Amino acid sequence: DQQVKQNSPSLSVQEGRISILNCDYTNSMFDYFLWYKKYPAEGPTFLISISSIKDKNEDGRFTVFLNKSAKHLSLHIVPSQPGDSAVYFCAASANNDMRFGAGTRLTVKP
Amino acid sequence: KAGVTQTPRYLIKTRGQQVTLSCSPISGHRSVSWYQQTPGQGLQFLFEYFSETQRNKGNFPGRFSGRQFSNSRSEMNVSTLELGDSALYLCASGRTGRNTEAFFGQGTRLTVV
């Protein structure tokens, strides 16, 4: 049962432009949401998170938006840099149970 | 502070065999979760342990089992290996597991032939 879905397997953007990665979830019990970034041959690394009591959290070039009514969250990266090229995983957590999406491969072209 | 350590990094096993993977969490972390990563499937949740107790379990067959020791180190066992078990197995540790980010190891790449 895929409770967290990332429907775009890949995304390509030009350096300097905005990257928008999307994520949908089905379980209304999720109360904490996270984004992870993964490079080849490495484990995922934490990027940014948001609690369900907020609708936006910003950290430098990264902003996460949460729309609870739509059960949707998104990660905005602006401006995008070639070093941002990686696989991005969305995760949602409820009661110590964290579930991940399938990932979106972001390619930022110079 | 040492990160999450998974051993071995690579493993090749034959169908029908069993395998044990090990994970040492970050010092002070009591929550350990295991995930299977396959192409196109993302990270599939296997189970989560906290203070030697399994708190959550994903939708995997009983061939997949785990345990956690008093020092928070965790092992995952897969019995009667199938070709479809070939994957990257990732372990993640956290302080409490609830509403905190998880820190991942580099994973164990299991190939079943």
Brief synopsis:
Chain A is mainly beta. Chain A contains no helices and eleven strands. The N and C termini of chain A lie far apart (about 40 Å).
Describe the structure.
The complex is a heterodimer of chains A (110) and B (113). By secondary structure, chain A is mainly beta. Chain A has strands spanning 4-5, 10-14, 19-25, 32-38, 45-51, 56-59, 62-67, 72-77, 86-94, 97-100, 104-109. In chain A, strands 2, 4, 5, 9, 10 and 11 form a six-stranded mixed sheet that branches. In chain A, strands 1-3-8-7-6 form a five-stranded antiparallel sheet, with no helix packed on it. In chain A, a hairpin with a 6-residue loop joins strand 4 and strand 5. In chain B, strands 2, 4, 5, 6, 9, 10 and 11 form a seven-stranded mixed sheet that branches. The mean pLDDT of chain B is 92. By secondary structure, chain B is an all-beta fold. Chain B is globular, with a radius of gyration of 13 Å. Helix content of chain B is 0%, strand content 53%. Classes of the chains: A mainly beta (110), B mainly beta (113). The interface between A and B is medium-sized, with 27 and 28 residues.
By DSSP (H or I, 4+ residues per run), the number of helices of chain A equals 0
Helix content of chain A: under 10%
The tally of beta strands of chain A, per DSSP, is: 11
Low-confidence stretches of chain A: none
Major pleated sheet of chain A: 6 strands, mixed
The number of distinct helices of chain B, counting runs of at least 4 residues, comes to 0
Fraction in beta strands of chain A: over 45%
